[in-house]
Structure formats: structure tokens, C-alpha cells
């Protein structure tokens, strides 16, 4: 497989001194916040241009970083540039407001940056989640410290280098330095994207300093198929939901709920379609699904799927490849239905009617995403409203854009990390009271007479 860095370059990605990285971010943040907002926006636009200028190199690096097919990596790099442009456009539109209070004061609200924001990002989409979390924070006037996974630091480190060339305070700390960064006194807000267990530990550590967190903690999303659906579209959507990225996606449609009258036909068609997925070398332009990102994830997937009734297809031998797989005939409390597998494995369940579909969808403690496939418009909206999830698709799956807020319910975390709503996560409101009355009535104590 393509190697993202050669031996001579490896020293550029040696473990960081977390204290020094955070101290530098804290030192640079006041000047960044003091810039005219439009200038911050222009620098983010320049960063977007720099990303596009190195798009192919970044895509190839991400392919080696993660094992994702090269065509998927190219698409992700393009979206990261789009994110920088989107939030560059927002930089001079972060506004306060006035409140007409009865006392006669002028009261205005001033959104202010937190200072240093720490973003801890996962290995499944390192460059994508780096931009997703860093750019709104930068637009709001914060300095950002990005801490990528030790498995996949390379593209995040390169993003930091591109930002440094434009004097943007986006710093990268690599290595097993997460606890030290979370504990750093200069860090005023933490964004964590990853597993629920690690997220809970990050939030607990942050709570000892009363530092707020945005948590995006994965999902076990229900992809609901009714018998009246567009059959071909739903089959295509079921593949996109779970097999894209080899299933290593927080929004993966890993639970496939199918109306009983359609179940057997749908599973047979999905199994046949799986055999046509091109699995292989991620650097091959024809590849649709590559390997898992690392051996530890392979072991995790094997542990959760071992012994379960399954339909599968051939996959390359060796390495971290996992074949597209359908698990079936499992009890509702089975581990593959309750735990995040994070691989190209979907668990199929039958449901009897709309109420049963909603019940099954809501049995998970997660609440990140979901979808419904039906030609009944009223039913589509009823199900979308009833399923507990932060993102829900009707007759589609996996469409995401930086302009739309994204985040979860329940064990999938809290807070929103895109759209205009993300800007509220990276600013805190100061209320300023201005006395405007010529002769204000004293509220307490002696008032000297001139």
C-alpha cells in the first residue's frame, strides 16, 4: 500500500510537546481574534485555495493514512476546501443583538471566542473531521489545537503546515498526548469525535475544570425499509449506508429494518448486489471498498461478528479486509445490534408495521442518524419525527453538507459541529449593560449630591 511519508520525513510527525503546542496557541489567539473578521475570512479562503492546490497529494496521503479508496479521498479533500470557504464566509457575519429591557438600559450581547479550542479527531476520516471542527472555531476568533488519532496523523499534520504558512493559529499535536491536552489550563473548550467510552473519559476530565465539550460519539443507525419503497433505490441506499468507507463511519446504517413482507426478497437482492462491489487496493481507481484502517479495528469487527448467522461474499485474503456482510436472525439484545461494529457489517431485522419499525429504531442507546424508504409521504414524515436521531434521511442516505447542523442524541453525544449552529458552540455570549438615563434612580446606598 502507498506509504504517506518516507523515512526522512517521519521526524516531522514525532510526538509533540503538548504544553508547548497549547502555549503557542494561547499566545497567538489574541492577535487572531483582534483581526478584522473579514481578514480571518480571507485567510480561511486562502487556506481553501492551498488545500485545492495540493488536492491530489492530500488525497493520496489520506488513502495511505486510512485505506479508503482514492476516489473517496479525493472527494473528501474537496469537501474540506469547501468547509474552509463556508466558514470563511461566516467570519464577518457573527453578530450580537440588543435586548429592550424595562430599566432603560441599552443591553447588547457580544459573542466572544473561547480562546483555545481543542479538537480531538478520529482515525476514520482524519482530514475531513479536522476541517469540520477547526474551521468554525477559527472563523469565530479562536485558536485551535488539533489532536489526530495516533493511527492517522499525516493529513492533519499537513493541514497544520498549510495553516501556518498563512499565519492561521491551527496547531497540530501528534502522539498519545490527549490527556495532557485536555488537562492544559489554556484549553477553554473541547471537541471530541470518537467512541463513547473515550468521549465519556474526556468529558469527565474536562468537567474537573468546568470546561464545556461538544461530543460526537458514534451511532447504531436504523435504515428502515417499507414494502412500498422504490426497491432499486432502497437497495442502492442500503449499500451506500453501510459499505461505503468499509462501514467505518459514525452515520453508517448498520441496522437494516425491513418490513416483513419484503424482508426475504430485499435481503436476497442486497446479497447479490454485495457480490458486485469492487474490493481491493485503495489506490486502484476501480476500487469501491478498501480494507479497514488498522489491525485493532479488524480484531474488533471479528469479535463482534464471530459466530453470528451471516451472508457474505468473497474478499481479498490477508491484510485488514473484511467482506461485506449481512448478519440476520439475531435477538434484539445481541451485541452486533447494540454495539458499534464500525465495519462493512449490517444487521437485518424484520418489522411488522410502522409502530414496530419505530420501536425497533429507538431501542438503541445511540441517536446519531437514521433513514426511511417509503413512497407514503405522510409515513415518511411521521417516522422521521418519531425516530430519535440528530440527522434523518427520507428516501436517501449519507448526504451531509457543511451548511447543515450535525450531531447526535443520547449516547451519540451532544452539541452541533457544522452549519451556522456550530458557530454558537465556539462563541460565548457576554451581556453588556449601558446606563442611558439622565437621572437614574439609585438602587442602593447613599448618592452624593454635587
Features:
2 domains, seven-stranded mixed β-sheet, disordered N terminus, single chain, Aldehyde Dehydrogenase, Chain A, domain 1, 450 residues, 40% helix, Aldehyde Dehydrogenase, Chain A, domain 2, six-stranded mixed β-sheet, 15 helices, alpha/beta
Helix/strand layout:
Layout: H1 18-34, H2 37-53, H3 55-66, H4 70-90, E1 97-99, E2 106-113, E3 116-120, H5 126-139, E4 143-147, H6 154-165, E5 170-172, H7 178-183, E6 187-193, H8 196-207, E7 213-216, E8 222-225, H9 231-243, E9 255-259, H10 260-274, H11 295-305, E10 310-312, E11 325-327, H12 335-338, E12 345-351, H13 354-361, E13 366-367, E14 369-373, H14 377-386, E15 391-394, E16 409-410, E17 413-414, H15 419-425, E18 427-434
Parallel strand pairs: 3-4, 3-6, 4-5, 6-7, 8-9, 8-14, 9-12, 11-12, 14-15
Antiparallel strand pairs: 1-2, 2-18, 7-17, 10-11, 13-16
Helix pairs in contact: 2-4, 3-4, 4-5, 9-10
Amino acid at each position: 500500500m502507498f506509504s504517506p511519508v518516507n523515512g526522512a520525513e517521519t521526524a516531522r510527525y514525532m510526538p509533540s510537546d503538548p504544553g508547548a503546542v497549547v502555549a503557542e496557541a494561547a499566545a497567538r489567539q489574541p492577535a487572531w481574534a483582534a483581526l478584522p473578521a473579514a481578514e480571518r475570512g480571507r485567510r480561511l479562503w486562502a487556506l481553501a485555495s492551498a488545500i485545492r492546490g495540493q488536492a491530489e497529494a492530500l488525497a493520496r496521503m489520506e488513502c495511505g493514512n486510512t485505506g479508503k479508496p482514492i476516489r473517496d479521498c479525493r472527494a473528501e479533500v474537496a469537501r474540506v476546501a469547501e468547509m474552509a470557504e463556508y466558514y470563511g464566509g461566516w467570519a464577518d457575519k457573527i453578530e450580537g443583538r440588543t435586548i429592550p429591557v424595562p430599566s432603560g438600559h441599552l443591553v447588547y450581547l457580544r459573542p466572544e471566542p473561547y480562546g483555545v479550542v481543542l479538537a480531538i479527531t478520529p482515525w476514520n476520516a482524519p482530514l475531513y473531521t479536522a476541517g469540520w471542527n477547526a474551521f468554525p472555531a477559527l472563523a469565530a476568533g479562536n485558536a485551535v489545537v488539533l489532536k489526530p488519532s495516533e493511527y492517522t496523523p499525516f493529513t492533519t499534520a499537513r493541514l497544520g503546515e498549510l495553516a501556518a504558512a498563512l499565519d492561521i493559529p491551527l496547531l497540530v499535536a501528534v502522539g498519545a498526548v490527549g490527556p495532557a491536552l485536555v488537562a492544559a489550563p489554556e484549553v477553554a473548550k473541547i471537541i471530541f469525535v470518537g467512541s463513547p467510552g473515550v468521549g465519556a473519559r474526556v468529558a469527565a476530565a474536562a468537567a474537573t475544570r468546568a470546561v464545556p465539550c461538544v461530543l460526537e460519539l458514534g451511532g447504531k443507525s436504523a435504515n428502515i425499509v417499507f414494502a412500498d419503497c422504490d426497491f432499486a433505490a432502497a437497495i442502492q441506499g442500503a449499500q451506500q449506508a453501510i459499505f461505503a468507507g468499509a462501514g467505518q463511519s459514525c452515520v453508517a446504517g448498520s441496522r437494516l429494518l425491513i418490513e416483513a413482507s419484503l424482508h426475504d426478497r430485499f435481503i436476497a437482492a442486497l446479497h447479490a448486489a454485495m457480490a458486485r462491489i469492487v474490493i481491493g487496493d485503495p489506490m486502484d481507481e476501480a476500487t469501491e471498498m478498501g480494507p479497514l484502517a488498522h489491525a485493532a479495528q479488524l480484531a474488533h469487527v471479528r469479535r463482534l461478528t464471530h459466530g453470528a448467522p451471516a451472508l457474505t461474499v468473497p474478499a481479498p485474503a490477508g491484510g485488514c479486509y473484511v467482506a461485506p456482510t449481512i448478519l440476520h436472525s439475531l435477538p434484539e439484545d445481541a451485541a452486533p445490534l447494540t454495539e458499534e461494529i464500525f465495519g462493512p457489517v449490517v444487521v437485518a431485522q424484520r418489522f411488522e408495521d410502522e409502530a414496530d419499525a419505530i420501536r425497533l429504531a429507538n431501542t438503541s442507546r445511540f441517536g446519531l442518524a437514521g433513514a426511511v424508504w417509503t413512497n407514503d409521504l405522510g409515513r415518511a414524515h411521521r417516522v422521521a419525527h418519531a425516530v430519535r436521531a440528530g440527522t434523518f434521511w427520507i428516501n436517501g442516505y449519507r448526504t451531509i453538507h457543511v451548511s447543515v447542523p450535525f450531531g447526535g442524541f443520547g449516547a451519540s453525544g451532544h452539541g452541533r459541529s457544522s452549519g451556522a449552529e456550530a458557530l454558537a458552540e465556539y462563541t460565548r455570549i457576554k451581556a453588556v449593560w449601558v446606563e442611558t438615563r439622565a437621572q437614574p434612580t439609585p438602587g442602593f446606598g447613599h448618592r452624593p449630591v454635587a
